[in-house]
Each structure stands twice: as structure tokens, then as C-alpha cells.
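User: Hey, my collaborator sent me this sequence without any context and asked if I could get a structure. I don't really work with proteins. Can you help?
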Amino acid sequence: MDNWCELNRTPLLRPPRDPAAAPQQVTCTVFDEQSDLIWAGDSTGFVASYAETVLAPYTRFRAHERSVMQILSHPKGVLSTDGLTLRLTSRRGLIISQWTKDDFPEFEAISRIVMTGPVEVLLATRAGLVKFDTAKGMITMTTPYFGDVILMTSNKRHAAIGKKDGFIDIYDVRTGSIVRTFATNSTTLTDMDLKEQTLVTCGMTRRHGVFSSDPLVNVFDLRTMQGLAPIAFPPGAYFVRLHPKLPSVIMIASQGGQMHCVDMFDPTNIFLAQIDVGPELLSFEISSTGDFISAVDAFSLHHLWAHNPEHSTMSNRAPLDYASLPEPPSTRTTIDDDIPLNTIGMPHYRETLLSAWPTQTIFRSAGTIPKQIDNSILESAQQVGPGIFEASYDKAKYGKRNMAKKYVKVAGSSASGKFLSSKTVSPTKTSRHPEASMEEDAFEFKCESNTSKVPNAFKKLEILYSKFGIDDFDFDYYNQTKFSGLECHVDNSYTNALLQLYRFVPEVFNFAVGSLAIENLNQDSLLTELGYLYDMLVKADGKHFRATNFQHTLSSIGEAYEVGILEKDHSSVNGHTITDLVQRSQWFNIFLLNKLLSDERVSKQPLGLQPELGDILGVQIQHQMRRVYTDEHKSAATLKLFLEVTSPRANNFEKTPHIPAQPDVIQYIESSMNRFEHERVQDTRAARYDIQETLHQVRRIPTVLSCNIILTSEEKRQIRNTRDWLKKKFHAGWSKNGYFLTEHIRGVPSGTASYFEEYELVGFVAEISGEAEKDTHLVTFVQMKAEGSDTKNWYMFNDFLVIPIPEEEALNVSYWWKTPVTLVYRNTNSPSEFHYDAWKNGLNDEILYRDHFAAGTRESKKIEYELLTKQEAPHPGSLVAIDTEFVTIEEEQFEIRSNGTRSLLKPSNQALARVSVLRGDDGDKFAVPFIDDWVVVKENIHDYLTTYSGIEHGDLDPLTSDKALVTRQVVYRKLWLLLNLGCVFVGHGLTKDFRTINISVPKSQVRDTAVFFYKGQRILSLRFLAYVLLDKKVQEGNHDSIEDAHTALMLYKKYLKLQENNQFEETLERIYQEGQILRFKPPGEE
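Assistant: No problem. I've predicted the 3D structure and written it out in C-alpha cell form, which is a compact way to encode the shape of the chain:
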């Protein structure tokens, strides 16, 4: 922590106009944690802010009648006190709230304040320690406390209270009790700081009747509640701060301005600096980023120091509001008969003006002659209509096309999306009839004969958000089939196409879902996540779903970064994300299959089970190598889970007699199974070069053949000119020269192959090129049996759009915008049944009856539940009450229009933080929780939503939390088991809970009290329903998921009783009438 340097010195106060007036003095300073501001309070009650590193004056206002005692940074602005009032002011200087002892008698004689949560502040007053919620404007807890408080600091879990006699009390913020008292070697305290679990203090000692600063800094560990070895500071410590990012680093300063930067674990590693102060140093602060130091001396001169100034930040860099500048007055000159034109003037120019050019000028430049059209473009021309020809355009060769595009208004586009709130009540318009769907522009899949535009059904889709959020988007409008689509607003959504393709391969589906019978709690298992995903797609029954858990696991795998298949972080280990969409998708196919194989081995080997995926997808390849000059022969065998398919020419296969001039996909695959290559290699023994010939020959075709299609630009043009290039079936037979492939066995000479196996196309992924590169995306074509029929139909999956499509249209790859990427063929002799309950075979449900805490969870964790016993094993119909809490890891994104209105572009991204499940069946343990899991969140948490979730900083970190922490995989398996064992879930507002958990629960297993007590006007809150129906006030402090789940369970029992007595409709009407009077809030709630 060296390289600290002084940036500037700025006076914070103006000299008084009246020389006889008492001099002003800066009393306190603080860094703003949200914006680049430094706040300062003075002895006259004014509070001022200074912006950025130049400390430009930003705001200044009168906050108090007396001297400002303390200032704290607040998410909404700044919190200040003078001992009599507590005031919350916005960064613009506008008052938000102000509280005095007239509002709360407990606020009399405020001595110190400290933030204990995002919006909660702890006050030391004459009444004791008062915990106050600034958002609600209410006292949440009062603890009697007697002692002269002169200092307070907090880590949001504990508050350290420094007393005048040099003792320090440790206050537990949650329980409101003093858990420990430390004695220091100081007569009184001058400063202290608390970060994470480390507390440091300094003070003064009375020697010979004179107070002097102690040469030692006291250090305490709140984990063990014991003191550590003190840190020496010979000049005498008067100020002490812990570095916010490096908890082991302490910043110490003396009254004379000498500053030390010391590492607690290596006290010899010290950085020394001298702040050029006046008589003494009055304040010493460090920014929340740890990059800046603020120091104010007795002359009210502000010294700003920085560590590595060019790459430092002072805060979270939230933008500041500035006053709008007035528009400059118009300088337009009126031209009339009295004002000549030469009064306007001309800008400086060097060339002859156009008005002065000779009228007989003729342009004879070379630029007027059009360039000759490239022959390759003319050769690629195709007739798309009567007298209309179109040539393909190679962007890689000629660059981006410079063509004007017709403006299409998003709101008016029929393919842009529909909102449920904008639907009419007419029943004829509330749904889309399956047979009439093809007539609508948004679902048109055929190209018009006189145009080359991409049909709307194949275009890239986006989810739009109204003011009601994601729930208002009409996903059902895009899918009238029984097959579920996948949402596109997730990380790496390009993988949706390949995930859907394997979903309809029976062998892969049964393998993935069947693997769920084994308990695999590894955090990087894609096999388990794929099994969950496929099981949820079946249970969704045509409703949209999003693969967030699968994508979360994929993004956590380091190898995925190395390969370059992740979109979210473009700075992967190997340099950057693969930019070509086709190449990225094919690399993902390779990565996915290899990862599934390794995950299978990890889960099955401990149980002594044999792997299956190698038999399903394994392509056995024999490599025969020969050196031409030395005639040296070698051979090797490999097993791949895919086949890289290139053209016969690329495989040196063009000389085989039965390969036509324009080969179809069958010849492409056959040549790739018998690929020949030669290369120049160095012979180390003879110190010369040799030619090595290698034959890569497939010796076994698996049940499911996955093919990555590698095409050059020229080969893409060829397949578009080849009639029926993509084949629905082929037959494969083994001959003396390797595998022989043909579309029809009839006509094949006898003796060509010993036997033939028939392979049928299950589906394929295709790239759809857009007019702009950002519009290029992937879609999936699969064929499936229609419900209740043996005939197979083709379907197209474009993320959440799912439509049936004719076979000839699905297999047609002659369009310029459609390119096959990955094909999957399967052996027709293999059983084609989907085993949707494959997970039942040997199901391991032990996780329901035992704990499995996350690594690093503290032994002193609090357990607030009682595990299930085998006698309580869930069965179909078992009632369980559930409630979940979440934290925000990405804030929502808005677009501000020119008229000032706000449009939601992307909602906030939330992560599961806590799940509580209670017993719901009548009995001795009715309403007793058996799951109360706090989930470890490794991502950076943007907002803990403490007021609504009850989750506080440090609760989800195994190093600091006292909760029963588990991984997401553990809690998800518990809920998945309860779902598949037939449990019925009771809760309030379960739609959002299930969406964030990423689980699809059939309606028959859901009992949502928010739906039961809904009359079509507004959704009633759990708090209001509990007050009206149960005469109970809940959620008075922070939310507690156990309390909320219990309340929802009691509301459901009340609902059943009302239905039984035929009083429900009457009661519901009374609830809404009473809600109108109470504004749908319990009395006393703001």
C-alpha cells in the first residue's frame, strides 16, 4: 500500500465577513459511498459537499441550528445530526426527512450515530441505544444503555460502542444485547474502526496530569472476542482506519499529520508519509474504495491524498445531478429589403465556392465510372422470382454492405411482442387459434417469391417489458404447442438451440433425466443441471421456461472461459469470446458432450455403475499413420462424442467414384468418416523432413450421431444450389474400405457392405443470418410424434417461439439466410420412447432427511428447523408451505425517453437467498419447518433487499454468517424431490418464487393464496390478508420466511373453512371493501 501522494489542498470554509465574528470550523467529514462527493459539516450548522478529485463545490445548505456533530453516507443522500435532530437530505440539498424528540421521545440528546444496514441507523441517546429505520421512519428496537458514548462504529452485524472511560462494548445488532466488553490501555478513546471482524482503537493516556496520545493501536478479533497484539505507532495514534478492501491493512495518523500504512500480519511492512497540516489534524477519513484519504487541519484546509490516482475511484460512481444550463439566445438575423446579405458573413474557406464554379464544368473523374462486378458474385446469382436474380454477398470478402434500411417502429411491429394488459376482453382476441397462426405476419415462415427478406418467424425475438414487468409479456401468444420454449434474456442464450435439440433425442433425454436418481451435489455438474432442465421443460407443458440454473453453472466452470464459449465476460482466459456464432455453438456442443461424460464418471464411479454416454454418442475412430520415406506405420484409436463433418474435397475424398459433383449431406458425412490427410513432418532421427499420410476412419457409428457441419463460404453457396442437400434418412454399412453411406439401399450392388443400419434425422440447429450482424441467431428444427398419433411432425424453436412447420420447409437449406450448424441422426432400431419418469429408478432422496451444509459454514450456526424423519416421508398430496427470499445481483435497466418517461429494458436479476418449508398436514408437527436453508451467493450482491427479505450483509458468506448455509444445488434438489414426490405447495405469490428458483410446478400442485383471494382488482398483500382474516400483524420488522410461510398456510386453512361454509364470496367482497377504506394496508402502516 505504497505510492500514496497528495492530489490537492482546498479550503472548505470562507473567512467570515465580520472580523469580530467567531471563526467557523469544520467539525466532521465523510466520503459519499454512492457518488464522488466529500461531505463536510461545520460549527454553524451548515453541511457542504465537494465533487470529484478537484473538490468543486456541489451543494451547501443549512442543516441544523447548532454545530454539526456527525455525518453519515446514506443511499438516498446524507444523514446528519447536531445532537437534537436527525436529518436525511438528498445529495442536491433537498430535505427528505427530519426527526426530533417531538417525533420520538427516544431521540433526546443524541451523542453518536452509525449505519447498521442499508437504511437502518443506530443512535446512542439518553434513552439508550435506538435502532431506527430511515425508510419507514419508525423505531424498530430500543435497548436500555447507560454510559457516556463518545464513538461508535459498525460492520452491520455488530456495533462497537466506545465510552469515555476507554472501555468498548460490543453490541449485537440483531438481538439488541451487549455480547462483550473490551478494556483498552487508554484513559479515553480518540478514534476506532470496525471492518468485517477486526476492531482497532486508539486513545490518550493521562501522564503527570497531561493527556498524550498512546503509542499503541489496540486490535480485537470479534470472531474469538479476544484482543490481538497491538500495533506500535511511536508518534502517538490519534486517528485509525481499517482499509475497506484490505482488512489487514491499518491507516494510522497522529495529530501532527504523520501517517503510517501498516500490515497487521507483517508490522515491518510500513509506508510512511507526512501530511502538511497546520497546528493539528482535525479529521481523517478513507473512502469506501480504499483509494482516497481525506484529512482536514485546524485551518479548515482539506488535504486529499490518493493511491495510484490515474486508476482510482472514490465511490460507486453514481452520476450527479447538475442544473440545466439555459439555452443561448438566438442570434438569427432577419433578412429583409433593408438588411444586406453580407451582414451575415461567411466561414473561413480555402476552396472555390460552388456558386463560383463555371456553368460549363464537366466532371471527368475516375470515380464516376462504376466498378466492374466481381465474377464470383455473378456466378452465385440465383433466380428468386420471374426475371429477378439475387446474388449472395460475402461480408468477409467485400466488407459490410452500405444499404439504407427501412425504419420499423418497435411498438407497431406485429412480431415485437404482445402484452396481456393491452388485450381486449373480447374472447376472439385473447388467444391465437393454432390453425390460424400461420396467417399472421409474426408467424410467417415462408419466403415470398419476389423478396429475399427473412420471414418473421425466423427473425431474432426480444422480450419486451411493460410497467408490469415480465409477467405482462404474453408468452402464450408465441406458443400453442405442448413443447416449451426457452427465454432469451439469460446469459449465453445462444445455447438454447442446442439444448432444445438434445431435448428431443430420446437417448440423451432419458440419460440426463435418469441421472437425477443419483444424488450429485457438485456445483459444476452440467449433467445434473441438464437433467433438471429437461424435467422442468416436460413439467412446463408448453409454458415458457428459462435455463438460468444451467447457465449459472456453465458460467462458473473455468474451462468454459478457456474455450471461449461464454458471452457474458468477453475477457476469457484465452483472450476473448469466440465471435463467430456458428463456431461458438459448435465448440459449445463439443464442450457440453465432453463435460456430460466427465460428470457421469464422477457420479457413477463411486457407486460402481458403468457409464452410458460413451455407448450412446461415442464415435470410435481409428487413426492409421504412415511415413512416406521411411515407410514407418503407426496406429491409434480415439473415442469422440461428435463427428466433425466437412466437404469431400476437404477430406481428400473427391476421387471416389460414387461421390457426385455436388454432394449432399450424406456424402459429406461419409467422407468425414474416411478422412485422409497428409502433412510435412520432421524426422528427428534422420534430421530431415518426411511426408506423413493419415487415414482417420470411423470404426463404429453410435446410436446417436452428433455432427458439427464445417462449411466455407464457397461450400455454403454450393449446398444452396444443391436440390435436397439435407436428407431425412440414410443407411450405413461397413465395407472393406470403411463405412459406406447411401440414402436408399435399393440399387446398391450386392457385396458392397455386410449389413446396413438405418439412421433418421432427429433435428438440427441452423444459423439464421440477419440484415445486421447483431440479428444473427440460432434456431432448432426437430421432428416429434404428434400427441395421440404415430405420425411425426416438424417443429421450429426460435427461443420462446414454437410453431409446427412443414417437412419440406424444415429441410430446405437453399435460403441465403439459413445454414445448418449441428445435425443429430439416430439409429431407427433404437427404442424411441421418452422415459419422463426415468429419475424414479433407484431414486436417492436422503438429502430430505439429513443436513448438507456448505463448506466453511460455522459450527455455531443457528438451526431453526426440525428435519423430516422416514416416518414423515412425503407422498402424493402431502401439504407443504413454502416461502423464499431473494437478493439482487444486477439492478434493472431503464431507458429514459426524450419526453421524460421511463421504459424498462431489463428487470433486475435476483438470486435465491433463503428457502423455508413447513409441514402442512395436520398432526403434532403441523407448521413446524423442516427446511430453512440460507443459500451461499458467490456473485457480487447489488442489494440485499433487507427491508423485504430480512437478509443482511454477511448472512450469505460462510466466513461471517451464523446461518445454516447450503449451496444452491442442495436446496434445489430438496425442492425438486418434494415436487416429484407429489407434494402440494402452499404459499403467497408463488409465481415469482418458482421463477427465481427456476422450477416449474404443475398447477395441480400449487395452492397460492394470492390467487385464491384475488378478485380481478388488485393482488392483496400477505400482510393485509393476515390482518383482515387472521387478526394478526406480520412482517413488522424485517421479513422472515418462516413467518411468511406459516401465515400463508393459515390463510389457506382459512380459505378451506370459508369454502366449506359457503362464506368465501361474501368474505372476499368484505375484504375488498375494507381494503378500500384502509388503502389495503394494516392500520398504522405508512
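In plain terms: The CA atoms of residues 1029 and 1051 lie 8 Å apart. You can pass these C-alpha cells on to your collaborator as they are.
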